[in-house]
Amino acid sequence: MYKRAFLFITLLSIFAFTSQPAQAQEGPTGPVYVVQPGDSLSSIASRFSVSLTELMAANKITDANSLDVGQQLVIPGLEGIAGTLSTNVINFGDSYRSLMRRTQVPQTLFKKLNHVVSPSEFYVGVSMIVPVATGTQNLNTRISPGAGESLLEMAVKQNTDTWTLSHYNSLQGSWDGLPGDTLFAPGGNGENGSASSGLPSAFLSAEIRDLPLKQGGTGVITVKTEPGVVLGGILVDHQLHFFPAEDGTQIALQGVHALLEPGIYSLRVDATLPDGSAQSYEQSVLIISGNYPDDPLLYVDAATIDPASTEPELQQLIDITVPSNPTKYWSGEFLSPASQYAEATYFTSRFGSRRTYIGTGTDLSIQGFHTGLDFGGGTGLPITAPARGKVIVAEIWTVRGGTTIIDHGWGVYSGFWHQSKFYVQVGDIVEQGQVIGEVGGTGRVTGPHLHWDLWVNGIQVDPLDWLIQAYP
Length: 472
Description:
By secondary structure, the chain is of the alpha+beta class.
């Protein structure tokens, strides 16, 4: 009897347990955004046009200041969107049309995520959000029809068909492929960065380092091409000079003027193929402010700001720093030219600060910016070469006083002003760390110090950038 009762109670409890309806594990749904450096919950909410309260509730966050880089956040209110919302900094070769083709993201969806009104807003240096869904077809093969080449011929080469190419590239039909257009097809593995660009086929890959570019910065443009391709181009209004690197890429270094107005400027890269044909790609590039401060008024000898002296000397300096020597003397990081004395990291004035010079005892004045990096220290302290190079100037100038200029190759030049002594002469090859002269107070100065100018393809840039990272 007891056994029957026990069995009855056991069966009843099992029935009661199994008859309970399954409780759905409710949770937030929607696409996932991976937190990036510099993000905050409020900035993420603003970017996706959701309230901070909604964002916190969807992710069960109670502390608005609790956020980690790499953390995954569900973004509510984005119906019809799934997958991971990837942050992409637009680099050279990414275009609005090629991004749509490569990712197969509908334009309406892309515009909704990025608040894009027009393709003209799509330029190098801007961050864009792209949804990446699991199992999405990768279009890693990039092709460009040649003159007179039909879409059918392109399809045969890619082992596909015209309908597939038309579908993936939003073409109206097999007749809609234009010479030089960048098309994408399934397959390939995206080697050399080809999957992330809409460049013409002569360019295997292209990249601009340290985006967005800033006033006084150095642009590093690295391009990999098919064999035998010769490169040229223009950034803002300066001709680019490309040089071969050991890894098979071609590199151009270009300074951005410290007084260039922040905004959108043009970058064009031209490729001349071995058969004489040409391909070009042009894109807008964002250049931001260097946030340079204003220095106090500086009173100097009036002769050093007289245009009769300053203009010829400046033109002489420009003429000297325009040529781009194909011989690259340096490698790795530059070292401080004040490395042999205690003031090696003591800067009395930094690059880019806005300045007004006033001629003592006159009403003569000029406005400009500080073109280099000033180190503290008095007369007689040793000046050392920041990198290997060839001495091309060692003489006294009116404004810059005792002047030594070193050609480092590839359009990069160091200038050292106000020296009291020279230890090198024109034609010498100097090594990194070699003493080239002594600090002085000659030329336009308010006291003895070491001034270091750095020129990159005809433009003065911030030398401090070259002390904290290596340039190719």
